[in-house]
User: Fold this.
Amino acid sequence: MREDGRVKRIFTLLALLVALAVMTMTVSAEPETALSKTQLTLFSGKTAQLSVSGTESTVKWSSSKKSVATVNKKGKVTAKKKGTAVITAKVDGVKYRCKVTVKQLVTSVKLNQKKVTITEGKTYTLKATVKPTNANNRAVAWSSSDPSVVTVSAKGKLKAVGPGTATITAKAKDGSGKKATCKLQVKAKKKTASAASIALDESALTLAVGQSGTLKATTADNTRVAWGSSDTSVVTVLNGKVTAKKAGSAVIAARRLDGTKTVYCKITVKEKETAAVSAAGESALARKFLNVLQKYSDQVKSDKAAGLVWSYSNSSAKSTWSAAVKNVQSKGIIYCNCALLPRWGLRELGIINSKNFWGLVGGGIQYRGDVKEQLLRHCEIIEVYKTPSQLLAEGNLLPGDICTWVEYQHTNVYAGDGLWYDSGRNGAIGGYTGGKFVFDSFGPAATVNMSGTTVGYIIRLVK
Assistant:
């Protein structure tokens, strides 16, 4: 019996030790008090829930700017208008903060017309009103439901292509889904009294060996056209498509099938340019273009050292580089702007004539006359709508690329290595003197925010 009592006491002692160990193991540290978010981005009118963990005490909520964002006693945040505010949660004498950024979406898009009727071949420009005026992105994308009836430019300019009906849509680019539409009716162009006529869209054309081009012959009465070449060893033609065979010259004839009239186009065929490219990927023509821009930039540096002023202006600028140099040397001052710099270079290389083009707000391109057709003989025109960083990652931003910008009306040229040739009013290319922007050079310089801006279109020199 004594032995049994002794065994019981031992088991009791062991049980007490085990219980003490379990109690020690189950003691945990008190949870840390924390706010669920320290930064928050909301669109106007949207809400989000904040909470404080690790405490059972009462939380007192407040906003630093109630006109931007409010918060109720349960931590529900409501975005009011564009701006920033700080939401504070005070608990047990300690303050926890969350920065709230409120962005404004587009709330409505309206067009100046709901229905338009125009004649085939005519143009009309629609105007979009985007509200509110403080929306973060007020750009709209234009589209046509039937481009064979009507086309629309990035600026809302309509061109009636053929008889029929189509719907033009202007849609906000900020993702709000807001849009407006216009019904367009295109009427057929009336036939002229001079029905027995024929016209060619070109009277002279220059091609490189192996290159093709298209001539368009029009007859007022839709009479069919027969085509011919004066020398098929130099150039051939099939339904208006001309193909250069060897260097030389020939005449393409377009004749009405009724035999009443014939029109002609002189074709000059040059030897094919070499397609050598640098390690960076640009064409030989793009490298020539960059060398021309560097010559311009060096001239600006030299002139500034001599006390001659190159300043920014959208007017009073000369259309050619040679005229600008002559002006600054005779008058001591000359003006340039962002789109004029690449146009100078393209004119010097013989790619375009006196016609102009420039970048639009929203990243599109405005063309004057037939300058687009001139560019397409030597360039690719590429719609991208991506940041420079994205384009570089894809290998789709090459030295010599002429770029337009979505966020502002601007045009410049990529020089490589993250640098640009630019004659705008920003970046490390100059500064303001007496209220006037004076250029130190045209680059290359870091003139564009590589992460925060978007390239709309690229004009790339390829041949």
About this structure: The two ends are 112 Å apart (CA to CA). The mean pLDDT is 88. The chain has six helices and 38 strands.
